Each structure stands twice: as C-alpha cells, then as structure tokens.
User: Fold these one by one.
Assistant:
Number 1:
Amino acid sequence: MSRVIRNSTFVICVIAATLGGCGYGIDYADCEVSCVGSGSDACPSGFTCMAGMCRIEGAGASCQAPGEVTLRQTTDDKVERALELGCTNPDNSTATGSWYRVFNLAQSGVDGSFKVDHVTLGICFAVGTPTITLKLGTYAGGAADPTLDLTKVTMLGQTTVMVPATQITELVEGKIAATVPANSNLIVEVAVPDLNGTGQEVNMGFTAGGEQKPGYVRSPLCGPATPTTTTGAGLPNAHLVMTVTGTP
C-alpha cells in the first residue's frame, strides 16, 4: 500500500512494491527518455539506448531536429513515481512555490547565443488541469550556488503551460521562444500558483539518477522562502527533471 503524509511539510510518498492489487502503468514513447551507455539495460523494457536516447525497436531517425541542442543536468529523464515531493494546503491542493535550474551555456557546450524553443518538464502527477508559469531569464550568479539571489535575474520571457491530469508520470513540453546571450547563465523557473480551493494538484517529477548541477526549490508555506538546492532543502535523492531545447 502507499502512505502519504499531507500537511505543511514536503510530501514524501513511498510506494511499496505491492499496492494491494492496484498499481500504475507507465508508458514511454520513442525519444522521450534520455539514457547513458548502450543496449537495453539503461532504458525501460522494450527500448534500447542509442546516442543518449531510449529508442523503440527499429527506430533510426534522429530524435532532434538538425542543429538542435538540449541542455540537461540529470543523467536521465526517467521520472520516479515513488519520489513524490510537494507542499499542500489544508484542502490538499498544491500551495504556491517555484522550481528552478540554472544552465551555464559555455559549460553546456554552447559557445555563442542560444535560441530556446521549448522546455521539457517532468511531472509526477497532476489532479485537474493546473496551469503553471514557465519563466526564462539570465542569472548573474553561479550555476551551482547553494541559494539563488532573484535580484540577479534578468527576465527574457514567460508563458503559461497547462498540465494534463495524470496519475502516472509524464514529460510535459512548454513552448517558449527566447534568445539567451552568449556566455550567460540561463535560469528556468516553474512557478506554481496557490491552488487552494480549486481541488487541483501538480507535483513536479524527479529522477533518482545523478545530476551535474543542482535543482532549486522555493516553498514559502512548507520550506525555504529563498530558492535553495533540493539537497539543502532536505531532498538529496530527488533530482528535478527539466531540460531546455533550442539552437545555438
């Protein structure tokens, strides 16, 4: 069975191997999950790791458009349903908060400017059809600072993304266009509004795989009011699934 503790703290849901006859099936599509290595051991059942992506049998075409680059800081994008982390209001709706990643263009192999096309977000689950705000900017601080100083952010653009209702893990794409100047740190924020009274919930997705740079969380109701690394917030094994795709 699953046990969920809901209050004004981060929710950590640990799903046992047996769910009393009830379980969730997770479906993946070709090119949806990144991987390290080769062969089938690095991917879900029925997929093979090729050129850093899990491919279905017989797939051979490129996963990305020619010239596209995906910025990433996790070794894979496999959202773990057992890593359920969130902050809830008394009515169990999701409280306001934000999740962040900072990408250094030069360290990511981008020598010049970078034209963002879309951001891909891992979603653990969602109730209703909550709308989140996706924000892009440059960050004058470091890409691995223990906390983020939001006064150092220069906004480049934002958009809203509707998250579909799901009780299985999903990768949700948010289309957003922005040009990031060369030699910049790109900061991405996913801002979740206060959903109190709506009955809606949205929990971001995390992988238990490794990460090269930290993700950050700001949760005024339950945790740090200043964006703090997930490790600093007490979530050392939860690595935020968030990638940015565009063209140099």
Number 2:
Amino acid sequence: LYENIIHLDREESRLKAMRHRARLEQDTAETALPELADAGVPLLRKMVLAMAVGRYGYHPEKGGQSAITDICNDLQAAGIDMSQDTVREMLEQASACFPGAADVA
C-alpha cells in the first residue's frame, strides 16, 4: 500500500509538471500568433496584387477596369460573395503598400 501511495504521489507531480509546461507553451503560442498574423498581411496583399495583375490584367492607375468584375465573378463562382467595392479597396490597399509592383505586367 505504501508503495502505491508513493507511486501515485510521483504520478501526481509528473502530471502537475506536464500541465505547467502545457500552460507555458499555450501562453507562448498566444503571444506569438498576433505577430505572425501581422507579418503575413503584407505578404498576402502582395500575393493578391500579383494575382490580380498577372491573371486579370489589373492596373491600379486605370479606372473602371473589367479586372474587378472578373475577380468578383470568379470569387462568386467559388462560393465567395464579395462586392466590387471591397475588391477594389483591397487591391488599392495592396497597391499602396507596394507601389510599382503592378508595373511588371
């Protein structure tokens, strides 16, 4: 009986240590995620801009483009409902972050 009590005490200590490590890892992950998300935004904007330029012929300096309509149509075909104003705004933001990036097409 005494040996079982000692074994259970050791197991309890081991489990407490595991819980403590898990909490530390969770805290570390939660503080790192916002940094990772923020770092990914410029890359995502650059990728969206490159696809709009390469696939749809988007050029930020031209108004009334069919590229916006084509992008919205393809999004809708994929089951994503997004207004032309939203697409235009996102592409304008991406163009502002990377001036001259759309000139490569």
Number 3:
Amino acid sequence: MSKELDDCPCSGKNIRNLAAPWILLTLRTHEGIHGYELSKIIGRQLEELGISLNMTGLYRHLNTLEKRGMLASEWDTAAQGPARRIYYLTETGQECLLRWIRTLTTQMCLIDAFFEQVRTELPDQLLQGQLLPRLLLPKAPGELRMSGGCACSTETSGSEAQEKEA
C-alpha cells in the first residue's frame, strides 16, 4: 500500500465527507470528463438518495484530489466554448478507490453489527419508531438488516455450519 495513502480519508481516519469516493468511482467509469459533467453524474446518483450536490465543494475536492496525486487534469481547448479542465484518475487514485471500498465495507459491517445489537437490546423502541426513521424499520419483528448482510459477518450459512460440525 502506498505510504501517501496513510493520511488519506480512505484509511477511515476521516469519513465525514464521502465526496472523494464518489468522484474516484465516477472517474474510474467515465475517464476524461470535465467537472460539470462529473457533477451531473454524481448529482443524479445523490438525488436518488435525497442529497444535493454542492458544486463549489465538488471543485474543491477535485483540486484537493489532484494536489494529492489521485487525479490528473488537462485543459480541453478543442471543444467549442471556453476551455474546460478534463479529469483523469491516476494509478494512485485507483489504489485510493480500492482502499475506500475496503474502508466503507468495514464501516458498513460495523454499522450493520451495531444495528443488529440495537435490534436485540432495544426491540420495543425500534418497533415503535423511536430510534430509526420509518424507512429503516423492519417489516416484521426480527427483520432488521441494514445492508442485507455483510461480507465481514462472522455468521455462517447452513452449509458452512454443517462443514464445521463434520
């Protein structure tokens, strides 16, 4: 793993803003696009979650990611209209994206385990809607699964349990 990623938010040290993984993932699949197009793609994804995209914040993140070597850019003067900066994901940026995926998977597993504990210890408050928004309430008692299962889970499937018993 690159030493330059040790202080990167993808390490899990600072997860308050998830703009970076959205930018890196979008540039991974839409290589060589300008900031406005990037904002439209990410904006559509976030709108589905009821979150608006801050354009100023997006350009600030692009600038920071480029300074940290995650992105590279160049001016596109061939297109009609004013010159636009085109962004590309670097090798370090791809490595950072993979680290974000691992970090967010771990965080998702921790959150999943936390809510399983909430379900166990506070079932009455949970079912009465005192703890979680209605969208996250279980459809039936004992049916709360935030992420639909977790790759980090220590639970075993029926076939794995049979193998362990044998």
